[in-house]
Amino acid sequence: MENTLDARGLNCPLPILRTKKSLNGLQAGDTLKVVATDPGSLKDMVAFCSQTGNTLLSSQQAGDDFEFLIRKA
Amino acid sequence: MSIAKLQPVNMETMPTDLADLETWFDRRLDEKLAERAAAKVPSLAIIATKGTMDMAYPPFILASTAAALGWNASIFFTFYGLELLKKDLHLKVSPQGNPAMPMKMPFGPDWLKRINMPIPNLVSGNLPGFESLATSLMEQTVKAKGVPSIKELRDICIESEVRLVACQMTVDLFNYRQDEFIPEIAEWIGATTYLGEARNADVCLFV
Q1: ipTM score for this prediction
Q2: Domain ranges, residue B179
Q3: Under a CB-based contact definition with an 8 Å cutoff, are residues B144 and B106 in contact?
Q4: What is the reported pLDDT for B83?
Q5: Who among A10, A16, A48 is closest to B146 (CB)?
Q6: What's the number of domains chain B is made of?
């Protein structure tokens, strides 16, 4: 099941706050795709996932966008 | 901690040799400490004392981010920091006495937006309306860069259950009325009460 959060154009700390909010609405094991343009989100998403126990399945750059795939713990 | 609270130990696996016992005990202690650390919810306590727009960002950004990480976060607003809890936010930013603040245009071509135009204090301090101009330029920059407004960040803090506490003494000192402030303030307290709370926090910051 594909859930997507469009966090493009948002800057720190909004991408992380919106990610957290989106994850709240999901079940454990669900995945969330986050698309962001904030270059800071590259490191922040890693830190967010490691501290909250969620799994960062992938993190990649596509043009100006950064795409993250997270599995909810 | 009482002995009774310790997890039962399998006596069969208990070493009898003294050196072995020492190693076994160290390992058990590490396991226990790791168990405790994993079960602990981290906490953040911020003391917010500034009432300008630029200095309103750090407490709200850090507290909302901590809440997103699952931490318990609280902010104690005291002195000018109480401005951040007003129902009507009229936060200003001033280049006056703020030499690190870049003065850049929020609009126009990129080359223009990069140019820093420092304004001498003589001008910024004496030109009527300069503070409003600087504030309006900062607000436009914030919006153009996708950074949330203070109001937005404060709402996120409230929604994510950041504990907002306010200084009782400041209200009396500056002749404020409590009804000028947002109703989401959890408590009106003094230094003694907040220090008691901050003492147990893992991270404590003064802004």
Answers
A1: 0.77
A2: 43-206
A3: yes
A4: 94
A5: A10
A6: 1
